[in-house]
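Weekly structure sync, notes
Attendees: PL (lead), two postdocs, one rotation student
Agenda item 3: pending single-chain targets
PL asked that the sequence for the first pending target be pasted directly into the notes so everyone works from the same version. It is reproduced below exactly as submitted, 209 residues in total.
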Amino acid sequence: MALHTWWLFVGAVFLLSGTPGPNMLHIMTRSVDMGLKRSTAAMAGCLSAVVMVLAASAAGLTTLLLALPGAFEVIRYAGVAYLLFLGIKAWRAEISPVDVGEGSIAPGLSRRVVFRGGFLIGISNPKLILFAVAFLPQFINPAKAQVPQFAILVATFAVIEALWYAVYAVGGRSLSRYLNRPAVKRMFNRVTGAVFMGFGLALLKVKPA
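Predicted structure, written out during the meeting:
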């Protein structure tokens, strides 16, 4: 892989990862509700899902998945259902003071549960599969060993994605200062819920290439 090809990949991923989506919104809301430090479990969950799908793409598994009749549709509808569930849950959430402490995970939510929520958000988005199948191969030189090239691209994507997670988490931390007012928190919950439901409905339009 030529150096200029890698820089093109970096630029494209930087813009794509920075675009607000389910992962970023989930991490920001976790940061709002739990604080910056405690939202790292959600970041780890989302990032694990992203790396898993990209690694599967390198192994050719996502191409196989798209070739299986109905497999893509199952993932797509599961993603829609989960995002709609999150949207309704956020819309109907009770108004309570925002906890911005930096201690252990909030009562009733273990680190494992927070991680799992982030992982489910990441793995249930079929757009990630399409990205892995259609986008990554464009930066691979077929005349050279492909495994090292895929490894570089996946690692690069993971680093950039993690940086954007931190940016959104810090943004949520800053936003939390204003959310102790019930009217503001209620509006935030409603907007968050509407956006999650919007993402879910948008996935209905996603079709395999």
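Discussion points:
- The CA atoms of residues 11 and 160 lie 10 Å apart.
- The mean pLDDT is 77.
Action: rotation student to compare against the earlier draft before next sync.
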